[in-house]
Amino acid sequence: MRIIVDAMGTDARPTPDVAGAVMAAHEWQYEIVLVGRKEAIDTELKKHDTRKLRLTVINTTDEILMADRPSVVSKEKQDSSMHIGMKLVKNGEADAFVTAGNTGAAYAIAMLNTLRRISGVKRPALSGIFPIDRQPIIFLDIGANADARPEWLSQFAVMGNIYAKNALRITAPRVGILSNGEEEGKGNQLVQEAGALIAQLSLNYVGNVEPRYILQGGVDVVVSDGFTGNILIKTFEASVRYLTGTIRDELRADVFSSIGGLLAKPAFKRARRRLDTSEVGGAPLLGVDGVVIICHGSSDERAIKNAIHQAARAAEGQVIDVIRQELAISTPV
Amino acid sequence: MRIIVDAMGTDARPTPDVAGAVMAAHEWQYEIVLVGRKEAIDTELKKHDTRKLRLTVINTTDEILMADRPSVVSKEKQDSSMHIGMKLVKNGEADAFVTAGNTGAAYAIAMLNTLRRISGVKRPALSGIFPIDRQPIIFLDIGANADARPEWLSQFAVMGNIYAKNALRITAPRVGILSNGEEEGKGNQLVQEAGALIAQLSLNYVGNVEPRYILQGGVDVVVSDGFTGNILIKTFEASVRYLTGTIRDELRADVFSSIGGLLAKPAFKRARRRLDTSEVGGAPLLGVDGVVIICHGSSDERAIKNAIHQAARAAEGQVIDVIRQELAISTPV
């Protein structure tokens, strides 16, 4: 298993990126190629015990920033860690690429410069994986396609199902479509038309799912357009932050509550960890012709380590080949 | 101020409905007409001190259930509390109608049987009012129009702004459109086109708003299509429930945390109250030709009382007349 790690990805690059790569190499003996500014990577590597590890470094000169516009990056920063890393996957010299860098740039470089779509895929989807009651749920699309068509959502269901089975190792994943009500006939026009298409596929399809049902762990794969999916993810994150802040305020408001808050601190920590996505590490860009795992820019070394593990499992599960085969079957020409 | 209260609204009807009406009549001296099964209402009224209150009862025979389909209710249950109550508002015999009953039925009866649209309104919107850091934020649409057009969203902005000013008494309300990113150019096609229309209106328009920004209290009126708005509201509610449940679990997991949890109980209660929508009571169905305030089916008497106060403020603020005037100006023919 040979995995390329973008060393220039996180907001604190290359420190957590390199540390996570070293941890993953120790824990699972993966062969890892770090791509980015060699000098900076070497400085980081010296902080770790890297004997017995299969770690190499490839030097690149262009650096992609979070504020860079995807279209500009795609054309003007061709010696970036993303370009070089994805090219290695494209050429079969590596099994997967992991990055915590600018998502829009990764999407553009994958689609325009390097991997391109899997044959038969209409639109790739950006996914998110969230641990709900300790079980991963994969959402797609969470941002690549703000406007979508029913056929695209139908393909998202196929790709999400394959990823859940082959990479997340969930048996017979329950696939649902995000909707404003669970009864049949609910949903906007897109959801109704996409739902009808997905119902015809050979999936364990549970139909319309509401946010409540998702958070009760009733489903493993949730399909939506990229606009609504993005709103759902961001509302979940903002709500958790808002409620946590409200509780923190109130715990400080009187003496008994303050003492109670101190005693209960380990419980709060555990609750927070149960919502923490760094256990999952990252989520795939599904539909491009190679395994690409995208992590949050704020990822720490543990998130990077787990994302590398994600990438390895996706490669082992032959997610790309299976998507190619299944789409050839399920997509009417 | 004469307000009609649907006594057959809540899940526990008519107990909280009648109790809330009595509380509102005591607190603000409103004249209140209770509509529903007279016998049941009279039984409830006997539990309260109603001397000096201006309370009357109108008997109706049909009862609308939560499971009833709106189209059926509209035709077949014409002697329901909703039909009779809204007719009284339509005929100018009352200033507002408050109900905690089936939302779809209320929408259908308002639109098809009784109040109908305000002249110039393309589509009425269902709104939700949430207290964020103790300030009300009005969201619309949260469910009436799963598919929407840019011009409808532009009218939602006008109506929401008027409600925020005249009923919620917010000076120069900040109006935003729900989007997947705050930069200009973000959003799906609907959001981009609607945003361009809203920017041309004379509003305190802040542009695209993300869920995080909304929950930081950065905006007073949030406009969206009814599908996305519904997903946002439901995700917020489900996330609060999920996080609360996770914390409760973890507080029970060890002895110190349990003690801490007990000590901090008042703080948790206060946090929960800050998220509690019964302080607001209900939210308007905006665009129909009369003040209609819709409450959650699970409303308690305090929520009903506050919804009645909402209704009075909307009537005092002449929300309907102002909407009629402003839409005549802002809508190109």
Which chain pair shows the most residues in contact?
Answer: A-B, 56 and 56 residues
Oligomer: homodimer
Specify the helix fraction band of chain A: 40-55%
Instruction: Report the uncertain regions of chain A.
Output: none
Strand content of chain A: 15-25%
Number of helices of chain A: 13
Give the beta-strand count of chain A: 11
First-to-last CA distance of chain A: 35 Å
From the helix content, strand content and strand pairing of chain A, which structural class follows?
alpha/beta
Overall average residue pLDDT of chain A: 93
Q: Order of strands in the sheet with the most strands of chain A?
A: 3-2-1-4-11-10-5-6-9-7-8
Backbone CA Rg of chain A: 20 Å
The profile of the biggest β sheet of chain A is: 11 strands, mixed
What general outline of chain A do the C-alpha atoms trace? Answer: globular
The helix/strand series of chain A, from N terminus to C terminus, equals EHEHEHHEHEEHEHEHEHHHEEHH
Task: Considering the chains and any ligands shown, give keywords for the structure.
homodimer, about 325 residues, alpha/beta, 11-stranded mixed beta sheet, 11 strands
Quick overview:
Two copies of one chain form a homodimer. The first copy, chain A, is 47% helix and 17% strand. The first copy, chain A, is built from 13 helices and eleven strands.
Describe the protein in words.
The structure is a homodimer of 333-residue chains. Chain A contains 13 helices and 11 strands. Chain A is of the alpha/beta class and 333 residues long. In chain A, helix 4 packs across helix 5, helix 6 crosses helix 7 and helix 6 packs antiparallel against helix 13. The interface between A and B is large, with 56 and 56 residues.
